[in-house]
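User:
Care to share a sequence and structure tokens?

Assistant:
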Amino acid sequence: MAVSDPGTLVAQLRSWGESFESKTPQDVLAAVIERYEPRIVLACSFGAEDVVLVDMIQRINPSVPLFYLDTDFLFPETYETKDRIINRYRLKPTQVIEVKPSLTPAQQEQRYGEALWKRDPDLCCRLRKVEPLIDVLKSFDAWITGIRRDQAPSRAQAGLIEWDAKFGLVKVNPLARWTWSDVWTYITLYEVPYNSLHDRNYPSIGCVHCTKPVKPGEDLRSGRWQGLAKTECGLHQT
């Protein structure tokens, strides 16, 4: 997305986002879809927040596509959730964009060695998530994410609508103001299909090698990259 005056655009988007602080996520979605469709897309990892957004978008404008990053290391339950979402909302193949890394797991191992996620998880995430994301976002002017402010300190200042300088497009976080309880109230109310790992103490679900269940009272994202200082895969870091 070409930007002639980044400073002005950042301020405009911040102001626009702030105008929705007392409104619903559906209000945010309706406004951004109206402005950016057909060049807007939902980033969907099939976690609790993302399936809520799928349901909301289907009720507002079902033509909006979603993409998912298939790292080749996702849980079987995540693929199962994907299939259930596709069937529930009768999504067409053109509405579900599969994004794959340029290297297969075998090629990555040959080039970088065995179990890269243990030795250099940042590089593994860059190869299997960030670089593929860069490629897919080139086709859009705005992307929708499931970020919530209470997920982690690194997300506490997330705006409802903001400029994503890292990827060069508008970033929309309709659920930023919501709590974990709000998410599950919606899932229950509308009977939205969700990842069964959530029932086994996996509030945040990524790749098999880097995701563990959390104990009661622990941070919702503490199951990601346990034992490491790493807290983000790089998709939502500036």
Summary: Residues 6-210 form a domain with the Rossmann fold fold (CATH 3.40.50.620). The longest helix spans residues 121-137. The CA atoms of residues 75 and 208 lie 6 Å apart.
